[in-house]
């Protein structure tokens, strides 16, 4: 009787969980459908950009390996950082404590080197990630503004790395330093919140969580602005401040298009991650099913799924970067070119079809494409 009641309770709980998940998915799909219905013209641009991004990966296959190089550089730096940390931990005068163990007493300026070392960890890590963004932006910009794709450089990725090292290291360093200035206070507040957990009152806890949330949102916004600033630098060869200003102007003037790309595009990429994780988990279940030695599948299956999600996130993040870079290139292309002789578009045929369809729709509505031209006001400077 106990087993039967337990099974019934388990089935009831499972049914409730499945029903709740189904209702959440249905609600999310309805909301997404309404968003796509209202912003269908801008969603068409998102689809076109995703199509062109696929062609970019065909012509620039080395983009697929970009996460490997970034991860390898991060691992090397973290190994160096840990080695330096061990050296810092053994500096100072050796003193034997009461238990008979040797401790190192650090005095003078060396005792503040810990803070310098921690700031260096955050800054250099962000610097390496920013170098990846600049490299991807430079390669995609080269692809977009080359009319005849047969005339592309032999390795646009290496050419982009060469330009980064020769001209844009200061831009990348400044952008990553701004992220560091926001991340360090957030980490300090998170440390304070963890240390005061259960000791502070409700008001202090609410203030701490609000500050942490605001700094997290600011960090995300600055990350997105920095990424677009690196793209503007790759297009115009301007400094960081000028590029950030130009990129911000583009994002504000094309706010609805940016919202469509970020909402629909991010949702599509999220579905891709879910598909990869589910496929990996299903394959893991099928493989573990034939292993009689394993009695517990949960832990190895969770590890495999987490690793699959990490890999999917790394590679689809590169795809997202390519889409964002293509959008800025599309904006500046429509600013300086109109398709007439001598001012031909650089864009792909898929984006040309989108522009032609938009012009036809505007003419039919009696607006002649003026509204669309207002939405696509890109940078005032060109390389």
From TrEMBL:
Residue ranges of the TM segments: 6-36, 43-62, 68-88, 114-145, 267-288, 294-316
Gene Ontology MF terms: choline transmembrane transporter activity
Record's signal peptide: none
Record key words, sorted: Membrane, Transmembrane, Transmembrane helix
GO cellular component labels: plasma membrane
A Pfam family this chain is assigned to: Choline_transpo
Origin: domain of life: Eukaryota
Localization terms from the record: Cell membrane; Membrane
Main location as per UniProt: membrane
Topology of the protein relative to the lipid bilayer: Multi-pass membrane protein
Similarity remark: Belongs to the CTL (choline transporter-like) family.
Described function: Choline transporter.
Name of the protein: Choline transporter-like protein
Organism expressing this protein natively: Canis lupus dingo
């Amino acid at each position: 009787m106990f087993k039967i009641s337990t099974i019934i309770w388990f089935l009831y709980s499972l049914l409730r969980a499945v029903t709740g998940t189904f209702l959440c998915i249905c609600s999310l799909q309805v909301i997404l459908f309404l968003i796509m219905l209202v912003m269908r013209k801008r969603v068409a641009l998102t689809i076109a950009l995703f199509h062109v991004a696929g062609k970019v990966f065909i012509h620039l296959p080395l983009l697929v390996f970009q996460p490997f190089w970034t991860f390898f550089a991060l691992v090397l730096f973290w190994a160096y950082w840990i080695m330096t940390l061990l050296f810092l931990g053994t500096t100072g005068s050796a003193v034997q404590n009461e238990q008979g163990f040797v401790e190192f007493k650090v005095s003078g300026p060396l005792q503040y080197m810990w803070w310098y070392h921690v700031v260096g960890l955050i800054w250099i890590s962000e610097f390496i990630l920013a170098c990846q963004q600049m490299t991807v932006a430079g390669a995609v910009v080269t692809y977009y503004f080359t009319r005849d794709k047969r005339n592309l450089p032999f390795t646009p990725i290496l050419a982009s790395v060469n330009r980064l090292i020769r001209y844009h290291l200061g831009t990348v360093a400044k952008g990553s330093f701004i992220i560091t200035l926001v991340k360090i206070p957030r980490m300090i507040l998170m440390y304070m919140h963890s240390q005061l957990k259960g000791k502070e009152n409700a008001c202090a806890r609410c203030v701490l969580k609000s500050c942490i949330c605001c700094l997290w949102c600011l960090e995300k916004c600055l990350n997105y602005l920095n990424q677009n600033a690196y793209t503007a630098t790759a297009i115009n060869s301007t400094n960081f401040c000028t590029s950030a200003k130009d990129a911000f102007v583009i994002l504000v003037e094309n706010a609805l298009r940016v919202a469509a790309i970020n909402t629909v595009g991010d949702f599509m990429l999220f579905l891709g991650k879910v598909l990869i994780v589910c496929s990996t988990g299903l394959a893991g279940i099928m493989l573990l099913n034939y292993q009689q030695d394993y009695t517990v599948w949960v832990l190895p299956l969770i590890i495999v799924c987490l690793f699959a999600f990490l890999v999917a996130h790394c590679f689809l993040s590169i795809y997202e970067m390519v889409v964002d870079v293509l959008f800025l290139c599309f904006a500046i292309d429509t600013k300086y070119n109109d398709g007439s002789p001598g001012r031909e578009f650089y864009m792909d045929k898929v984006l040309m079809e989108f522009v032609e369809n938009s012009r036809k729709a505007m003419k039919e509505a009696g607006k002649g494409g003026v509204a669309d031209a207002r939405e696509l006001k890109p940078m005032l400077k060109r390389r």
